[in-house]
Amino acid sequence: MANQRADRVTGIFFFLLGVAVLGGSLAMPDFQEQGASVYEAPGLTPALLGFALAVSGLLLAFRRSRTAHEESLPDLRMPESRKRVLLAVVLTLIYALGLLGRVPFIAATAIFVFSFTLSFEHLIDKDRAKLPRRAAIAALLAAAVSVAISFLFQDLFLVQLP
């Protein structure tokens, strides 16, 4: 019963967030006066994502409870689950509020991906002997992901990154 209530509250939150994203994207300029088509509008993708988020939020908020399915989900009341959720939130907030805009985008993203990957790998298996290898893999992943994201958005989508 508690999961159903949490799903309803979370679903309503994501519905409202999706509506806000949709509204914000519709307020973006469409550049049709400069000859651009509707498919070139910068708000098109955010509008589609906001719509999908709003629909998903409604589906989550008003779905029927399935007890067999709920038993297979991790229980957030367990200390390990709470630790993982808290770690993800803290690392994401450090990235969004502390690094972005203060550090070059590629460096900020590399730091975030490296710390996120290494932290969660260490939570899964705390064997210190594997730490140097995991750190090397996390560093390679962080470098590849940050460069790929920067290239994709700046060079292909022509989006200016912080």
Automatic annotation (TrEMBL):
<dbReference type="Pfam" id="PF07331">
    <property type="entry name" value="TctB"/>
</dbReference>
<feature type="transmembrane region" description="Helical">
    <location>
        <begin position="83"/>
        <end position="100"/>
    </location>
</feature>
<feature type="domain" description="DUF1468">
    <location>
        <begin position="9"/>
        <end position="162"/>
    </location>
</feature>
<keyword id="KW-1133">Transmembrane helix</keyword>
<feature type="transmembrane region" description="Helical">
    <location>
        <begin position="43"/>
        <end position="62"/>
    </location>
</feature>
<feature type="transmembrane region" description="Helical">
    <location>
        <begin position="106"/>
        <end position="124"/>
    </location>
</feature>
<keyword id="KW-0812">Transmembrane</keyword>
<dbReference type="InterPro" id="IPR009936">
    <property type="entry name" value="DUF1468"/>
</dbReference>
<protein>
    <submittedName>
        <fullName>Tripartite tricarboxylate transporter TctB family protein</fullName>
    </submittedName>
</protein>
<feature type="transmembrane region" description="Helical">
    <location>
        <begin position="136"/>
        <end position="153"/>
    </location>
</feature>
<keyword id="KW-0472">Membrane</keyword>
